[in-house]
Amino acid sequence: MPRSNVHQTGDTVESPGRPLQKAFALLETVGQSSQAPSLSALSRLTGIPKASVHRMLRVLSNLDLVLRRDDGTYTLGDRLFDMVDDTERSAVERLRLLLSPYLMELRDRTGAVVALGQLSGHNIRVLDTLYSHHQSGYVRPGNHLLPVHCTALGRTLIARHLDVFDPTRTPPFTRFTPHTTTDPRVLARILHTVCRLGHAVVENEYLPGVVSVAAPIELGFAAPDLAICAFGPMPLRNKATFINAVKDVAAAAGDRLGPRASFCRPSSVAGSGA
């Protein structure tokens, strides 16, 4: 008889790829969470039973793909970033070198936390962040992933990639605060507005009490996969001035980066238009 393509465990029939899908769901949730999640939080956010989460986290920890902290919460392990090759790291460093003056200018003009992000599939990879010590509560140090649906960096970029990102055909969106937009139809309307305006403003959706403004870094020959963002506590004292500062600096960065884009940009997983 031919061998079955499913695994039988007790009363549960599971396809061969399902455990791997669950492991990736855990890694993605750890990477996207604004605060390091606990085992219970990961079970709640992913819908995976706690016993299965515990078992998979133990394997992922042994592989150094996640790190269990002393307080019982989890962060991404160093091995994930070590798997990025030297060429990719060099591209990121070249980007930082070219764009750091623009990040500093935006930091000076707004007094806010400033970040550079790149579209990577259905996530935003944060490439660089500038902030002062009293703003550290809003920042996760090092390279990390942000969700696209409820961050200004994410929305300003996926709004230009609606040919490959259809909110109505993606998995359910994670709710990070009571104000997170998770309705695909509402998100689609928001993205069309973002595309028309050329910037995104997100309030209280990813981090409670935080507002963020982002604009794409236009390169002229393709839909952008890089964006610059400034964020801080709500409310903004002068929203129009804040938005204009972000858009002005993003435009200047695009002018600077455009001629060098072919050799200084890290690879993107943004889709065919990137």
How would the blueprint of this fold be written?
Elements: E1 7-9, E2 12-14, H1 18-32, H2 39-46, H3 50-62, E3 66-68, E4 74-76, H4 78-82, H5 86-110, E5 113-120, E6 123-130, E7 144-147, H6 152-158, H7 184-197, E8 200-203, E9 210-216, E10 226-233, H8 239-257, H9 261-264
Helix pairs in contact: 2-3, 5-8
Defining key terms:
single chain; 274 residues; alpha+beta; Arc Repressor Mutant, subunit A; Beta-Lactamase
Overview of the molecule:
By secondary structure, the protein is α+β, with helices and mostly antiparallel strands. It has two domains: 75 residues, Orthogonal Bundle (Arc Repressor Mutant, subunit A), CATH 1.10.10; 179 residues, 2-Layer Sandwich (Beta-Lactamase), CATH 3.30.450. The chain is built from nine helices and ten strands. β1 and β2 form a beta hairpin. It starts with 6 loop residues before the first strand and ends in a 10-residue tail after the last helix. The N terminus and C terminus are likely disordered.
Number of domains: 2
Number of DSSP E strands:
10
Might you state the CATH topology name of the largest domain? Beta-Lactamase
Main sheet specs: 6 strands, antiparallel
Helix content: 40-55%
CATH C-level class of the largest domain is: Alpha Beta
Query: Per the principal axes of the C-alpha atoms, what is the gross shape?
Result: globular
Looking at the overall shape, the CATH architecture of the largest domain is 2-Layer Sandwich
User: What amount of the residues lies in strands?
Assistant: 15-25%
Low-confidence sequence ranges: 1-13, 262-267, 269-274
Output the CATH homologous superfamily of the largest domain: GAF domain
The helix-and-strand class reads alpha+beta
Q: Which radius of gyration do the C-alpha atoms yield?
A: 20 Å
Please report the number of helical segments.
9
The SSE string, one letter per element, is EEHHHEEHHEEEHHEEEHH
Averaged pLDDT, please? 81
Q: Please list the strands of the largest sheet in the order they lie side by side.
A: 7-6-5-10-9-8
